[in-house]
Amino acid sequence: MSEQAETSAAPAAPDETARYAPLLATGERVLLVRRRHWFTFVNAARWFLLVFGAAIIVEIINGSVPNGGVSGHVSDGLTWIFVAGLLVALAGLGWEYLAWQRERYLVTTRRVIEAGGVINKWSHDTSLEMINDMEVEHPLFGRIFGYGDIDLLTASEAGTNKLTFLPDADGFKKTLLDAKYQHQVEVESGGRAAVAAPAAAPVADDRMTAQELDEAVSRLADMRDRGMLTAEEFEAKKHELLDRL
Q: How far is it, in rounded angstroms, from Cα 131 to Cα 173?
C-alpha cells in the first residue's frame, strides 16, 4: 500500500511535445526542454547594466550641483543624460530578458533544437545521427553559478555546434546520449526485422546461397555485439538461417 502511495505521489515528467509541435516532424517527440542559465541574461545585458549604473552615478553627481545660474544649465543637462541613460538601459534590459525567457534547447527523438526569438522566431537543429561526439566544458563562472557548455562534434560542414550556458550540462549530455542510442536502435531495428521476417514465415523457395547466409549471420552477430540480441536469440536465428541453406 505504501509503495502504491509513493508511486502515485511521484510527479510524471511533463510531455512538451504538443507545446512545441510546430518545430517537430511527424512522429517526433520532445524528451527534454532546457532554458539557458540566468547568467546568459547577465552576460548579454552587461552593457545595458553599465549604462544603468552610469545613469545612477550621473544622478548622484547632479544632486550636488546647484540649480541656479550656470550651474542650473549643467544640472538640466545632467538630468537629461540621466533620463536618456535610464530609458536606454531599461529598454535594453527588458529586451534581453524577453530574449532569454523565450530561448530554449530541446532534445527530441531525432534532433537537438535551439529555438528562440522575440519578434522574429528562429530555430537551429542538429540531427542525432550527425553527432559523432560531445565535449562538456565547465568554465570558472560555470562552476560557480552552475552551468556548462557542450560542443556537438558533427559530420556536417560546420563541424561543431556549441550549446552554451546550460544548467546541469552533464545531465543534458546524458539525455542526449540516451536519445541518440535509442534513435540508432530504432533505425537499425529495420534491419533486424528484415532478417527475422523471412525466418518467421518460410516459403517453398525460401533458400539462401552461402554468400547470403554469411552476410545474414554477420548482421546478426553485429546486432548481438550491440546488445540488440541476446546470445540465445543469436544462436536460435543462426540455426534458422542454417536450415535454409
A: 12
